[in-house]
Amino acid sequence: MTMYFGVLILTELILLGLILHIVSYKGLTKSQKSWYIITFAAIMFCALAEYAVHCGYYDYKWAVPLTILTVVQFSVAPLLSVLFAGALGLKSQALSAILVFGLNLVIEASSAPFGSIFYFDKDGYHRGILFIAYQILYLLSLAYLIISMCVVGRKFKHRDVITIIMIPVIIVAGIIPMTVAKIHITYLSIAMCAALCYIYYNDLVQQDIKAALVKEKETVTRIQEHTILGLSNLIENRDMETGEHITRTSAYVKRLALCARENNVYKDIIDDTFVSRLYSLSPMHDIGKIIVSDRILRKPGRLTPEEYEEMKKHAEAGGRIVREVLSGITDEDYVSFAADIATYHHEHWDGTGYPKGLMNNEIPLSARIMAIADVYDALVSKRCYKEPMSKEDALYEIEIESGTHFDPNLVEIALKHPEIFDEN
Prior knowledge:
Blueprint: H1 2-24, H2 30-54, H3 63-76, H4 80-87, H5 93-111, E1 118-121, E2 124-127, H6 131-155, H7 161-181, H8 186-238, H9 244-262, H10 272-281, H11 294-297, H12 305-326, H13 332-344, H14 365-380, H15 391-400, H16 408-416
Antiparallel strand pairs: 1-2
Helix pairs in contact: 1-2, 1-8, 2-3, 2-4, 2-8, 3-5, 4-5, 4-6, 6-7, 7-8, 9-10, 9-14, 12-13, 13-14, 14-15
């Protein structure tokens, strides 16, 4: 009986721990908390009731109260599956619980005077000839629990099959020792299953939340991309462009980054996230031109030194505008990536660029890639102040500027893979 008492204490502590966790847990509604607390409290009651009957200190004068206690226990035990179903979020379980408990209570109470399911005599507790009826109800309730878990799994669009399988395995593992060797661990196994059901439900909820967050993030990303393209096209149209510059340079930077990674150039920096951000944020590289007057943007000839100084302000302004537009609606890494492209794509490898005069690896890699794509497209495009160059001549110009204007490592990749600059 010492072992039995230890099992009882362990069972009660498991269930008490679950109840305390539920009370403080904010991931459940008030209704769900109530269902779980009632379920775990019912198991605690059944475990205590069973112990009272089998504790080894039986006295025949307690036969009547023990009979009443056992009737209630036998009425509650098959009800546990219905309570679990309610805790798992299935509707209409309150009515089912009342009906199941009422039916069980009628069966147990009506059979108690005749000892057909169980009885007490001077030697203690005994099973009646119809005890199998209780066992059938118990097995039906177990089947109901398994079905409920499957239904809930389907409802949440996920299903942890291993947990569902382990529920009957653990319960059977608890029943067999009781049946064969009178080792009372049935309710310990039920307590363990209660913990598994609780974990199962919370895991389903978390998976659904995660899926919803992923979907929401995808929606936000699409909105961001449309906003970025809309703003960028607006700026390009002021510069008498049609938006094709944005489309082309986005393709160029993506291909250049991928080719660099394939050739082990800056492979430690260029991961999938880097490539994705570079492609989606490169359209914002000239967003700072919104502060430049149309007179300068659309001037057909060369800019005067004063006009050029005014034009140069668009780089720093671009970084500032990007932060104003994107801050608060996305994470800081994303904002910084976009701001780096807008601010530093006119920096030169030798430190002679603007706005900060950065040099070599001080210039963010995203801006160094953007610089090559931007200049190449400017060279091969017809502008109000010049005729377009051929692809070969444009690449030759970029080669000449390797190590001065451009990152020589990236220029080498660009020359090795001229298909980067194909327009299709």
